[in-house]
Amino acid sequence: MAKSTIWCLRLLLLVFSLQAHAQTDSERKKMLRDSADRYFDKKTEHLNYMSYRLQLYADSALRIDSTYAHLWRMKGFPYLQVGDIEYTLRYYDKAVELEPQRWLAYRAFCKTVFLKDYESGLQDFLKADSDPAIPKYEMDHSFAFWKGICYLELGDYKQAKALFEESIQEQTGRLGTTKVHHLDLFYLGMAHAHLKEYDRAIDCLKNSLTKYPKFSDVFYHLANIHHQLNLDKQALDYIYWAEYYQLEGLKLNETNEIYVNFPEQIAIGDIRELMRKLTKK
Questions:
Q1: Which of 47, 160, 168, 201 has the fewest beta carbons closer than 10 A?
Q2: Rounded to an integer, what distance in angstroms lies between the CA atom of residue 169 and that of residue 38?
Q3: Which residue positions does the secretion signal occupy (predicted)?
Q4: Which pTM value belongs to this model?
Q5: Which fold has domain 50-139?
Q6: Contact, 174 vs 138, CB < 8 A?
Q7: Crossing angle of helices 2-44/52-64, nearest 10°?
Q8: In sequence order, what E strands does the chain have?
Q9: 3-state secondary structure of 137
Q10: Using CA atoms, how far apart are residues 117 and 103, in angstroms rounded to an integer?
Q11: Number of H helices, E strands in the chain
């Protein structure tokens, strides 16, 4: 009985010791991370994210906590802005290695939008989609939406169409039809247009305008579709509005479009080229 009691006490002491050690390690890790965060945030508060100094401050913060995935991601950010794939992925891969549930889908987004690597971006989205612990949204859009973008740019328009429809259906069920994002409708319209399903494309693009009535890209694509259908009078009406709203800066309305063009996005030169074709007749 006495030996049994002594053994139990020793076991309890061992458990308490391990718990205390784990708590100490956890607290130490949190303290290091908080310190790295405070240092980096203070140094970069008024810094342009394309500045080389961001690299220096990220390096210094990583000396405090080299396991902080966010800092590895920030090291890659300036390279992302200038399209340097090698260095971007070097640091983003490290962030994903350290914290895959937080950064895998973000890396997929960056590959898709910034690096235009649709095949690799799609593979990352598929992998993230298969992990039940990862939320199925990235940068305000569903995984179905982003996978649809990848398939659209890879030329698989039927698969893209199915995924945009899935994204719209999910939003409708969760939020109602009035809350469907204008870009889901826009890209669904573009998938129809590529498949030469022009009536459905026009319906989708016009539906996008009910969410964002001054969306210049939609007016351009409506003009182009009507031109393809030899309906140049209607096309002219749309192209004039496209030019007007484009000059007003009313484009996709995505935060990152200040850094990069999104798929199917048009510029003022595209509008004026189509306008010249329409006014020559």
A1: 47
A2: 42
A3: 1-22
A4: 0.85
A5: 1.25.40
A6: no
A7: 160
A8: 137-138, 141-142
A9: strand
A10: 17
A11: 13, 2
